[in-house]
Amino acid sequence: MKLAERAIEYKTRGELQAMRASGLILARAIEAGRAAAMPGATTGDVDAAVAAVIAEAGAVSNFLNYGSHGGQGGFPATICASVNDEVVHGIPGKRVLLDGDLLSIDAGCVLDGWHSDSAVTVHVGEPPSMAEVDLVKATELAMWAAIAAAKAGGRLGDVSWAIQMSGEKSAAEDGRHYGSVAGYGGHGIGTAMHMDPFVPNQGRRGKGPRLAPGMALAIEPMLTLGKPSTAELDDGWTVVTRDGARAAHFEHSMAICSDGITVLTARDRGRAGLAPFGVEPISLD
Is the pTM of this model over 0.85? Predict the structure, then answer.
């Protein structure tokens, strides 16, 4: 493994295969969280379902105790469970999920020293309106557009630009205004969960560090049904929309190789999500 000038970590093919093993565990854990997110369950129940899969696979959560100093003050759970107007970093607990809620499940794990990070937004029961359905679809589509744009030889700004343009296109097609949350975004990933480079959800094509084989990125757009401005609650973690609008968040960890790209945290390597963009993900085997 080599470090570049900007502290971007470049992995060998074998190291990316190790990240893929971590990513597959996380994919199963996220699926368990989806299944647990039903009316009447608590966000703590969803957290427990994800934690069980990670533990049974012999991995560990990279969210639990994240940010601790001297064993104090770290994040207290395995997942971030963000409900309705909570954008990211919601703390799971006794909150009961209701029919019509919007829940973002964000989680990660470490296996043999290699990190993975992924997030989905799901409807709890039946979505209350078409607006929530459109929001979720638009946010997920922006993630896939960005992953498709993350090609060797390109620039990091291409990824950010793809997120921004996809959100704007969806807004025009849906007849809605989506707020694109700034200040939070994706990141490099590998031997740590959060690494260089930061991946903004807005940007200019052709700008930023060059994308090169061996890079692994966690790409995570966040859209709202209102304005993009946010605030952090007194718990020091939960980020909410200032106007109370609902928010959605999707994330996958992906890798850039000399022969193409692959999604480390998707069971199908991203084939279904990338198909509309004419991209066929590679196998690392």
Answer: yes
pLDDT band at 70 (very low <50, low <70, confident <90, very high): low
Which pLDDT band holds residue 71 (cuts at 50, 70, 90)? low
d(CA 12, CA 77): 32
Report the 3 state secondary structure along the chain.
CEECCCCCEECCHHHHHHHHHHHHHHHHHHHHHHHHCCCCCEHHHHHHHHHHHHHHCCCEECCCCCCCECCECCCCCCEEEEECCEEECCCCCCCECCCCCEEEEEEEEEECCEEEEEEEEEECCCCCCHHHHHHHHHHHHHHHHHHHHCCCCCEHHHHHHHHHHHHHHHHHHHCCCCEECCCCCEEECCCCCCEEEEECCCCCCCCCCECCCCCEEEECCEEECCCCCEEECCCCCCEEECCCCCEEECEEEEEEECCEEEECCCCCCCHHHHHHHCCCCCCCC
Fold adopted by 9-277: Creatine Amidinohydrolase (3.90.230)
User: Could you check whether the bond before residue 197 is cis, i.e. omega within 30 degrees of 0?
Assistant: yes
Contact partners, residue 240, CB within 8 Å, separation at least 6: 85, 86, 87, 230, 231, 232, 233
Q: Which of 93, 58, 57 is nearest to 75 (CA)?
A: 93
pLDDT at 4 over 50: no
Q: Give the residue extent of every domain in the chain.
A: 9-277
pLDDT of residue 2 exceeding 90: no
